[in-house]
Amino acid sequence: MTRFKDVVITGVSTGIGTETTRFLISKGYRVFGSVRKPTDADRLQKEMGDRYVPLIMDVTDADAIQRASEKVGTLLGSNRLSGLVNNAGMVVSGPLLHLRPSEFRRQLEANMTGPLMVTQAFAPLLGTDNKRTGPVGRIVNIGSTVAKVVPPFLGAYAASKWGLEGMSEALRRELKLFGIDLVIIEPGAVNTAMYDKGETEDLSEFKTTPYWGAIENFRKYIVTEGRKGLPPERLASTVYAALTAAKPKTRYAVVPQRLKNWTLPRLLPSRMVDDAIAKQMGFIRK
User: Fold this and answer.
1) Catalytic residues
2) Does 146 have pLDDT greater than 70?
3) CA–CA separation, 153 vs 137, rounded Å?
């Protein structure tokens, strides 16, 4: 009887996570996909079939992560996990001068500490436990181009994704002890429900700040750009390549309008980019 390749993906209720689950199932994988709500688990199981196995967990909940890893370990038997995709995350918006420290901490907890806890819990299944059999697995961490090309009002998110990149660099080198590889994927704008959430996000606490007009303009701009972004299926195929390539790159940047959104901002002098963004945002010193 042929054994499925098994992969864990966090945050599969919508967007990149859903489409990556669908894509990997079509390629013969069994996907253990995390969601926070049982209703999402039921919906996805009906939609995806038996090769989707729901994991009910929040990536900031250590107990839930441990229960999920035990469930996966039991279903794997003595075999190893083929892959772990750290996809779950969230966005905290707002000008850093006025952002509540508790919100900054919440952002780092979800996008940095969460992936670390998930990786620690599933590492034995990927290959650090030498009692398991089969090829060692591979980790794919979903970063963001925002870590390298940082717009205003997404400073907390950029900090979390920049931190995830630094952590991933160190972890990739540490995991060489076990033969486990780690790949970073840096998506640009991807047309997902995240932008619908951004459009309705309550940012009224910043109304009394000097940034309010710019915040409203930025929100309209970012939602418009997001809806012109890549389809999530494009990211799903990149995740598949990162999991299966014999010699994968250490990172893949998947960016719409690559010259404008990725190449030029990283080649031009930083002060020039600062001035262009300030002009676009209407940042005029008073």
Assistant:
1) 157
2) yes
3) 37
**Contact indicator for 20, 12 with CB cutoff of 8 Å:** yes
Residues near 77 by beta carbon (within 8 Å), at least 6 away in sequence: none
* Closest alpha carbon to 13 in 90, 96, 107, 73: 90
pLDDT on residue 198? 67
- The number of CA neighbours under 13 Å toward the Cβ of 222 is 25
Question: 29-62: per-residue pLDDT in tens?
Answer: 999 999 999 999 999 999 999 999 999 999 999 9
Which of 89-98, 214-223, 236-245 comes out lowest in average pLDDT?
A: 214-223
pLDDT > 90? residue 286:
no
pTM beyond 0.90, yes or no: yes
Phi, psi of 53 (to 5 degrees): -115, 115
Calpha distance 231→228 (Å, rounded): 9
- Check residue 193 and give its pLDDT: 72
Radius of gyration of the chain (CA): 20
- For the chain, the straight-line distance linking the first and the last C-alpha, in angstroms and rounded, comes to 72
